[in-house]
Specification:
With 337 residues, the chain is α/β, with parallel strands linked by helices. It has one domain (2-335): Glycosidases (TIM Barrel). It has helices at 2-13, 60-63, 73-84, 101-105, 124-141, 177-194, 213-225, 245-251, 269-272, 275-284, 294-297, 303-317, 328-335, and strands spanning 30-34, 51-59, 88-94, 110-113, 116-119, 147-151, 200-203, 230-237, 257-261, 289-293. 46% of the residues are buried.
Length: 337
């Protein structure tokens, strides 16, 4: 590894990587510890130098159980945990299936699937309640020193953009691409207004399998309206790569990009496959940050692969926007088996 780092230093000294002005550097770089939803468990892996920070996920109905009642305990705990280790946190609060029941009591349109109630995400009552929550969230955390970035959610059933649910015919509830894209624009604007000093992330996938036009419309809005303020990612990186590799590469021409792993030791382990191979494929797509499941970061057999990943992310963050990756020869030296 020492020889490889010498090669990196010489490459930098010889101008292999063109210098970038400070404002052109990605605000989010590195490996982030993806914690279980609505939990802040023990995190000994944060002591590892190759782990840049944590990524915490929460449910809207937990944070705002009633219209005028907020419970910030879990978010505060996550930020404090990052601070204890001298690191930063990215957070996401998920609406969609985790929408509190009081939103429906206000009259928001909904659909019931297997005894679960979910919102019609372009409904104006739902969107207004979600916008108001984002505003309050920004008032509390918009300038928080330990908060690195926010993941934008709200027009998907979970943390991404998909609204696909078994047995739900969304066009019968008024779906059109135009309504879907407009709902996302409303939410994206709300996040940018609430967190003007923080980068935000959009995790891409289409509203329904194969229907990418609406997804592309939302991504285009982000890249044209908030260049370098919205980072684009996909949450499906595995040994075979990502179904959204081409979209991530295209987005990487205009902003910084990342991935969340498809799974980890605690979730979809076998389906995720060989981690080192997955990491290399993500790096080839230009990612500068990766959300890695906590179980993988606690697995000592993956330590070497994670260290190589961290080094590769730093290298990718040095590239000018418009270049997908750095010298393949240097990647082979630094990341080869």
């Amino acid at each position: 590894m020492a020889r490889k780092m010498i090669i990196l230093v010489l490459a930098l000294a010889c101008g292999v990587f063109a210098p970038l002005p400070a404002l052109a550097r990605s605000p989010v770089v590195g490996v982030f510890d993806l914690l279980p939803t609505n939990e802040v468990p023990a995190t000994p892996e944060l002591a590892k130098p190759e782990v840049e920070g944590l990524s915490a996920r929460f449910r809207w109905r937990t944070i705002q159980p009633r219209p005028d009642e907020y419970d910030w305990t879990l978010i505060d705990e996550a930020l404090a945990r990052a601070r204890e280790h001298g690191k930063k946190a990215m957070i996401r609060v998920t609406a969609g299936v985790h929408t509190p029941t009081w939103v429906y009591d206000l009259g928001a349109a909904s659909v019931t699937v297997d005894d679960n109630t979910v919102p019609v995400v372009w409904d104006p009552i739902y969107l207004l309640a979600w916008k108001n929550f984002i505003s309050v969230l920004g008032s509390r955390y918009g300038n928080h020193a330990d908060l690195l970035s926010l993941h934008m959610t709200g027009v998907g059933m979970f943390g991404e953009m998909s609204i696909s649910l078994p047995g739900v015919d969304w066009p019968s509830y008024g779906y059109t691409d135009e309504k879907y894209v407009a709902a996302w624009i409303t939410v994206i604007n709300a996040y940018r207004q609430a967190f003007p000093q923080k980068p935000t992330h959009l995790a891409i996938n289409p509203p329904f399998p194969g229907m990418v036009a609406a997804m592309v419309g939302v991504v285009h809005y982000c890249l044209s309206t908030y260049p370098r303020e919205v980072l684009i990612q996909a949450n499906d990186l595995r040994e075979s790569g990502s179904a959204y590799s081409n979209a991530i590469r295209q987005a990487g021409l205009r902003t910084w990009v990342g991935y969340q792993m498809f799974g980890g030791r605690e979730w979809q382990d076998a389906e995720t496959g060989d981690r080192a191979t997955a990491f290399r494929k993500g790096l080839a797509d230009g990612m500068v940050y990766t959300e890695v499941y906590q179980g993988d970061l606690q697995d000592e057999t993956l330590d070497a692969a994670v260290r190589k990943l961290a080094a590769g992310l730093i290298l990718n963050s040095l590239r000018p926007l418009g270049r997908i990756s750095l010298s393949p020869a240097i990647f082979l030296l630094l990341l080869g088996d």
